[in-house]
Amino acid sequence: MNRFKFNVTSDFIVNSLCAITISTGVVEYSANIFFNKSYVKYFKEAYKNNEPVALSESLRKRYNDVIFDIKYTDYQKAFSIPFTADGYNPVNVGCLNTRTGCYIGIPRTYDLSSIDDLSLLNDTKLQEFMQLFNDKSESGQQFIESLILSEPAKKYSIAREIFLTDNMRIFIKSISFSVILLPMYILGNTLLKALPAKKLKIKALTFFLLCNVGVFIWLLTRVVVENFFQNEADKIVANINEDYTRGGIEYYQKLIQRNLALRNILPNGKNMYSEQGNKLAFISVFSPLPLTYRKKHLEYKLEKYLKENNDKST
Questions:
Q1: Residues 6 or more apart whose Cβ sits within 8 Å of residue 265
Q2: Which of 7, 18, 36, 286 might form a disulfide with 281, Cβ 3.0–4.6 angstroms?
Q3: In whole angstroms, what is the distance from residue 167 CA to residue 118 CA?
Q4: φ, ψ at 85 (rounded to 5°)
């Protein structure tokens, strides 16, 4: 009786890695493009009593005000859908320039105009969050205050999420793994063929190092692409008018305040956030665009607005 033998060859490993890398891009692209409605429903949308939270009239009006300010066309309006996002930050899913369109998530906290409104929000998750953080402490109070934004700050953050869907960001990030894999595969195949057949340990070490280098380059590429488009979105929104620029400065200041509060509240907060309120990554080159940098960029833009206004008045 012949037994089925499964041999793990170098070709099998390489083909498996190719399949994994291509699948990674396909999954990311599919979640944001082909199945973005389901992705929003199961991972991004706010729920209460197992039912999705409907977008309030005030949030819908705020969204409509933003798309009016950025001069959305009727075509673009048809492919952009707002929803109530889970959490405390606005989110975006999808791409505006596709048939499935995009989804813009607005958090329920954007209905708040003061700290006193927290009890009116009737958000059980938020109330538990406050109790966990001990909202009577100084850091707890800072965290709560960071949730209260002015109208310009709310509109700035929503506009930024909208512009993040109107580019090639998702497509570039989705194909980045496959694009990086090809030269790494060619290099690895050349090196492995050049090495003696009996030097298995050297081949294994070479293969291991190449895999790590490839993953490092891929992660770095994703961070660079994300930071580039985030920065471009900030520039576009700041160019709308002075009010949006002021709102952006306040928005990033509130995020910095929130991160500083979390730095003192969370057990590993000092490893997650810097003393300036920026997010930290395990490896510094993988850190997102610093909030302090984004705030300074908007402050510089505001100075230009003020200078132009002074020139006009004189």
A1: 133, 134, 137, 139, 140, 143
A2: 286
A3: 36
A4: -90, 145
Which residues are registered as beta bridge partners of 219? Answer: none
Is the pTM value of this prediction over 0.70?
yes
Q: How far, in Å, CA of 217 to CA of 222, rounded? A: 9
What is the per-residue pLDDT across 258-294, written as a single tens digit (0 to 9) for each?
A: 999 999 888 888 999 999 999 998 777 788 999 999 9
Helices of type H across the chain: 10-32, 36-39, 57-69, 74-78, 118-121, 124-133, 138-146, 151-164, 169-194, 200-238, 242-265, 269-272, 291-313
CB atoms under 10 Å from CB of 226, counted, come to 16
Q: 47-48 and 51-52 as β-strands: parallel, antiparallel, unpaired?
A: antiparallel
Instruction: Give yes or no for a contact between 62 and 83, defined as CB atoms under 8 angstroms apart.
Output: no
CA–CA separation, 78 and 71 (whole Å): 14
